[in-house]
Structure formats: structure tokens, C-alpha cells
Design brief:
Distance between the termini: 7 Å
Order of helices and strands: HHHHHHH
Largest sheet: none
Strand content: under 5%
Number of domains: 1
Structural class: mainly alpha
Oligomer: single chain
Radius of gyration: 16 Å
Helix content: over 70%
Length: 168
């Protein structure tokens, strides 16, 4: 996103800039609410996941209209949302006690954001999310705040991975 923001300022594409800033604001507000709730309650409320997805789709969709590569971004956004959602759904079905449906729906919302930037950002978001989750789990086991069989919230790791991919 930083490169997109810099490019829009350089080109004077203020509509695209406004759309990207709005999308990032939605990401920060909804992502914060989701992360806090998941850590406290081990759930990702549909209300916040829906706001993240809808807000991102609207803002980034407007960004597609204002971009020279609008259709590429649109199909990346749609495909990214579907791909991340499908991946998380498969993981949910394979491990009934691991991934919840909240993680699946969050994957769809996060895929919109990462996919809008391109497939490489989407892959980065997924990989970084799993790395962040693994590192967090390892640290908690080492400091004896969790055991290898503990159920840890995965939403914050997914959000962190996507945030890092958006910054790349």
C-alpha cells in the first residue's frame, strides 16, 4: 500500500488516494475490534468481520474505478477474497477443533485487501499470518502461558500477516 499511496500522490489521483485511505481506516478499526475480541473471547463476531469485508469491498471497489488498472485490481480483490476464504474453509474442514468459521470468514475479508494489491501480496498475507501464529504459539509455550494442546486465537495472527503484506 505505501507504493500505491505514493504513486497516487505523485499522479494527483485524489479519488484513488481517498479510496485507499478509507479502506485502510476500515481495516484498522475493524481489525482492532476483531483482534481484541478474539484474544478476549476466542471468537470473531460476524458484525465486525462483515464490516471489514463490506467496507473493504466498497472502498477498494471505488479504488478500482479510479485506477488505471481497475479491472486487474477488481479481479485480484474478488479472487483474493475467494481464495483465502477457500483455503481457510479447507483447513476448517480438515481440523474441526482448530480453525473456526470466524477464521474462515475473516480469511475472505482479508483476501479482498491483499488480493487488491496482487497475488504476491495475497500469498504473503497467508504465509505471514501462519508464521505469526506459529511464532506466537511457540513463545507462549516457551514462557509456559500455553501448552502444545492449547487453543489459541488465530484471528490476530491473520490480521497481522495481512497488515504486514499490505505494508510490503
Amino acid at each position: 500500500m505505501p507504493s500505491v499511496l505514493a504513486e497516487t500522490v505523485r499522479e494527483g489521483n485524489w479519488l484513488l488516494l481517498a479510496a485507499v485511505v478509507a479502506a485502510l481506516a476500515v481495516f484498522v478499526v475493524c481489525g482492532t475490534a476483531l483482534a481484541v475480541t478474539d484474544v478476549r473471547e476466542h471468537r470473531l463476531p460476524n458484525l465486525w468481520t462483515g464490516r471489514l469485508a463490506a467496507g473493504g469491498a466498497v472502498a477498494l471497489g471505488l479504488g478500482c474505478l479510479a485506477s488505471d488498472v481497475g479491472w486487474t485490481r477488481f479481479w485480484g480483490m474478488a479472487g483474493g477474497g475467494a481464495a483465502y476464504l477457500a483455503l481457510m474453509l479447507v483447513l476448517h474442514l480438515l481440523s474441526r477443533t482448530g480453525m473456526g468459521m470466524g477464521d474462515v470468514k475473516l480469511g475472505g475479508a482479508l483476501g479482498l485487501y491483499a488480493g487488491w494489491l496482487g497475488w504476491d501480496h495475497l500469498a504473503g498475507a497467508v504465509v505471514l499470518g501462519f508464521v505469526a501464529g506459529g511464532v506466537l504459539a511457540l513463545v507462549l509455550v516457551v514462557v509456559r502461558r500455553a501448552t502444545p494442546s492449547s487453543h489459541l486465537p488465530f484471528g490476530p495472527a491473520m490480521l497481522l500477516g495481512t497488515a504486514l503484506a499490505l505494508l510490503a
